[in-house]
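Supplementary Note 3. Input sequence used for the single-chain structure prediction.
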Amino acid sequence: MHGETPQDAVRGGSPRSRGKRAIPRSPHTLDKSLETESSTILLYCLRSIIYLIKKKVASL
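The predicted structure, written as discrete structure tokens, is reproduced below.
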């Protein structure tokens, strides 16, 4: 028989889904590091663009 038995329901899901419950904290920290990384990259790009624009304006 496949699926959840009453004991599985008490333990919190089938053996396969039980392993997923250990993860919840990591996606948040991952999001945070991705956030800071992407904002750093964005800032770098913005600075580069502003620098290039200033150079172009100065050469006109």
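DSSP finds three helices and no strands in the chain. The CA atoms of residues 12 and 22 lie 12 Å apart.
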